[in-house]
Amino acid sequence: xxxxxxxxxxxxxAIGLAVKIGKIATGEIEDEREELSSAAAQLGSKGGKKRAxxxxxxxxxxxxxxxxxxxxxxxxxxxxx
Length: 81
What we know:
This protein is an all-alpha fold. The protein has two domains: 1-33, no CATH class; 48-79, no CATH class. The protein is 56% helix and 0% strand. 0% of the residues are buried.
């Protein structure tokens, strides 16, 4: 049986995987994966909050504006804001 990214056993075929996901979703079986098991993942979640705390509201707004422009592909200055 193939292993997932964290060594967990998962069915190789799509139907078997769908059945397993359905059983996990309905509570018939427990998902054996550990949430945020790596130290790097735990530190990463703290780092973003700390970075936001140390930024000025203007800087956070500037970063958010740039992210929106990248995502939506247009400039916010064309809307007159």
